[in-house]
Amino acid sequence: MQRRHAQVLHERFNVKLFLEEFNARYQTDFKVVAEPNPPEAIIQSKNTTRWVEVTTAYLNEAQAKALSAYPVKGEKPQANWQGVIADLDAQFAHQFVDVVTKKLGKTSYAPFSKQYGKGYLIVSIQHPMFCQKTLSAIERVWDEVEVVDNGYFKSIYIVNRADDGYKVSLWKSNLS
Questions:
Q1: Where are the domains of the chain?
Q2: pTM of this prediction?
């Protein structure tokens, strides 16, 4: 499998999980009608069209390389990290906030926002022990940074592994 194909499958999977949760929670019937990439999906219900962007938050660059190399033919598996990591949650919180603030600050989403309204940002969580403590660390880091939000996203959802599969949760809503 090529790297881009693996990424597309990962993004589709996260959009699918998001739509299942979103449609159940809000009793809507959104379906993917296009995958222009970017954004990952244009979604449509009977009355509304929106768009979805997916990003992934890793513990660090080594984990990102290791996990993205795993499904790619010809690439050798790599270690997720070397040495001791003192505070997984703090390290992850900084990575998460960095990824999200970059997406919020991008101006290239303007055409999609203009055409379809505000979109949804889905953050795939790649943290082996993600929990409430991790979310608290993210909130602390979030409160410390200056976030430039161009107003293109309606909400941010997180997708993380859970005991019985995956969990989709609203993280932030009513963004600027």
A1: 3-173
A2: 0.89
